[in-house]
Amino acid sequence: MVFLFYKISWLDLPLYWDEAWSYGSAIFAFHKEGIWFLPGNADPGLTRGHPLLFYQLAVLWIHLAGTSLISVHLFALLLSCLLIAALYSMCSDLFDQTTARTVSLLLLLQPLFLAQSTLLLPEVLLALLTLMTVHSYFKKRWKRYILSASLLVLTKESGMVAVAALIVDKLIFAGHRLSRLREKEARQGNDKFLPRDQKDRSLILTETLELLMIFIPVFVFISFLAIQKIRYGWFLYPEHTRMITAEGKALVAGLKQVFSRLFLQTGRNVFLLLFMPCLAYYFFFLKPDEKHKHFIRFSFIFILMYGVFSAFNFFTVRYILSPLPFYLITGLLVLQASMEKRKVLRGTILFLLVAVFLYNGFAAPPNESDASRGFRNTILVQREAVRYAVTMQWNDKLIYTTFLMQYYLSDPNLGYIDDASQRFTRVSNKNDLSYDLYLFCSNENDPLYRKICCNADYQLIRRFELKGSWVEYYRPAQKN
Questions:
Q1: Sign of the C-alpha dihedral, residues 219, 223, 228, 233?
Q2: Element (H, E) at 25
Q3: Sign of the C-alpha dihedral, residues 369, 374, 380, 382?
Q4: Would you list the DSSP string of 297-338?
Q5: pLDDT number for residue 89
Q6: Nearest to 27 by CA among 150, 121, 156, 113
Q7: What integer pLDDT is reported at residue 22 of this predicted model?
């Protein structure tokens, strides 16, 4: 309830960064066109070739609840609440109430989650379906697994990483059990592949069927790719595939970036510092619970595979929202098991972790990324700057501005202008023209800004600033 109360004032904020373009722009366009679409019907310039489940759900929501800013952000907030509920449900079902409560609280306090929880972006849905898929796998609820995993891979391409990690985990688990069966049969003098015992034969059949069910979402994803290939001539969006790198130095740098963001930022460095020695103690001096050991093993597989996948591709911080809960769960399981007989020490450390995460969630200096609560300041100052331009009646001026600001000035659905009558129709970011006005923002690094801000041929008209976020208007001096 405290979290929901805190987020109320965020619901009417204009759309920001990727939320505005491309996700928000695509969703509002699909709503306007009334498209209920398969991949072959969606404009890849808007969807960037991504699977379409998130777009479909958002379009359905605004069909029912309206296109207001409060409406679309309520949709995102609902998904965020479901994510916390799914995390709590999985941990209480697989482990215990203490783990469930603590890990849910720790995730709630993460700046990444606090920022993403009201943004119209697919990462929260991706994390939600990842938790549901893994929960179903560990409980062997195969119908629910097939449903949640299929929805997962139809949300975003990176959803395949969780499915691939489950396949690897299953192969390791099944291979271990099969090797034990072969050893058993060898001791009994049976050199044939199939065991004599009917129970053992049934076990092999069960493992094989379970592996086949785990693979079903792979075929769902392949079907999606096949439709794209038939319709557009490519499996994955070409602009994205050009970002894939296989160079050794680039991959190492990518891995460092991913793991640095996951393990070392916003208080998670303290978590890692406590986790690592406890992990060594846990495996070398304790007898781990098999269920806990299995989950920890899967978490390592998933996090490693996710890091490698992200290193090959374009990466931004919000992408770690899917592996982050598994890092937190694994750490808590190890910490609690290592201090099972030291309740005072365990309680002190858990209190320390909550305090560190609370500080980083609300007191630490924010930034302007969509993984930090500081983007709120950027939105507020940019909205104020756009409204100033409307008041000054600059709608017909030729304006140079940054990439995202072009959309803010021209699309009323994004929340910076009230309606189509306030649209700025002559905005561009081509620097080979002579403009009436130049508009720069702190969150978009534009090389032209350095040439204009210190140039006597241009005059600063107005600067808007809020807690480090700023917007500046310039005009040529001769037009003064």
A1: positive
A2: helix 25-33
A3: negative
A4: HHHHHHHHHHHHHHHHS---GGGGGTTHHHHHHHHHHHHHHH
A5: 97
A6: 121
A7: 84
The predicted-structure confidence for 252-291, as pLDDT tens digits, reads as follows: 888 899 999 999 988 899 999 988 988 888 888 888 788 8
Q: How far apart are CA 456 and CA 452, in angstroms?
A: 8
> Of 26, 55, 50, 32, whose CA–CA distance to 232 is shortest?
50
Q: Position of tokens 């309206």?
A: 66
- CA-CA distance, 401 to 385, in Å (whole number)? 12
- Over residues 56-115, the pLDDT tens digits come to 999 999 999 999 999 999 999 999 999 999 999 999 999 999 999 999 999 999 999 999
Determine the Cα–Cα distance for residues 12 and 21; give it in Å rounded to an integer. Answer: 18
Lookup result for tokens 């770690």: 320
Tell me, rounded to whole angstroms, the distance of Cα 269 from its chain centroid. Answer: 20
Q: Locate 350 and state its tokens.
A: 């858990």
Cα separation of 336 and 348, whole Å? 12
Q: What whole-number distance in Å separates Cα of residue 108 and Cα of residue 84? A: 8
**Predicted structure pTM score:** 0.93
Q: Let me know: does 468 contact 461? Beta carbons within 8 Å.
A: no
Q: Which residues of the chain have pLDDT under 50?
A: none
Distance CA 453, CA 457 (A): 10
CA angle 154, 371, 156 (to 5 degrees): 10
Nearest alpha-carbon partner for 98 in 333, 398, 449: 333
pLDDT at 376: 94
Q: What pLDDT sits at residue 172? A: 87
Distance CA 354, CA 102 (A): 9
Preceding peptide of 71 cis, ω within 30°: no
Say what the pLDDT of residue 337 is.
87
What is the distance between the alpha carbons of residues 280 and 282, in angstroms, rounded to a whole number?
5
Residue with tokens 């899917």: 322
How does DSSP assign 365-401, residue by residue?
PP-SSTTSTTHHHHHHHHHHHHHHHHHTT-TTS-EEE
CB crowding 322-360: b at 16 or more within 10 Å, else e: bbbbbbbbbbbbbbbbbbeeeeeebeebbeebeebbbeb
